[in-house]
């Protein structure tokens, strides 16, 4: 396998349009990657860049000021090798509900 230093990275920018917020509210992004806060919106280790920003001229659009750089590993490129917590029944149910599958149409 390639060394971690040679794994590809991708810069991701998030933007939310037409967000109805009130003064003092904020919008942030979390996800399953460490760079995205590992699903913890209050993670003190995550970068402040995870919070989207807006201004008088941009509102109601919120955007990140800079990209979040995510390292693409083998599991990201090939898909997860071990889908913990999922059963064949779960995957069949989700596949049947997707508009792209014949069962979901």
UniProtKB/TrEMBL annotation:
GO terms for molecular function: starch binding. Residues 78-91 have a biased composition (Acidic residues). It holds the Pfam family CBM_20. Residues 4-105 form the CBM20 domain. InterPro entries: Carb-bd-like_fold, CBM20, Ig-like_fold. Residues 72-105 are annotated as: Disordered. This is CBM20 domain-containing protein. The lineage of its organism: Eukaryota, Sar, Alveolata, Ciliophora, Intramacronucleata.
């Amino acid at each position: 396998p390639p060394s971690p230093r040679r794994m590809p990275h991708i810069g991701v920018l998030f933007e939310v349009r037409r967000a109805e917020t009130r003064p003092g509210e904020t919008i942030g992004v979390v996800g399953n990657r460490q760079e995205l806060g590992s699903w913890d919106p209050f993670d003190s280790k995550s970068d402040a860049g995870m919070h989207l920003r807006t201004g008088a001229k941009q509102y109601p659009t919120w955007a990140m000021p800079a990209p979040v750089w995510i390292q693409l590993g083998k599991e990201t490129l090939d898909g997860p090798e071990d889908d913990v917590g999922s059963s064949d029944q779960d995957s069949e149910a989700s596949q049947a509900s997707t508009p792209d599958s014949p069962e979901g149409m």
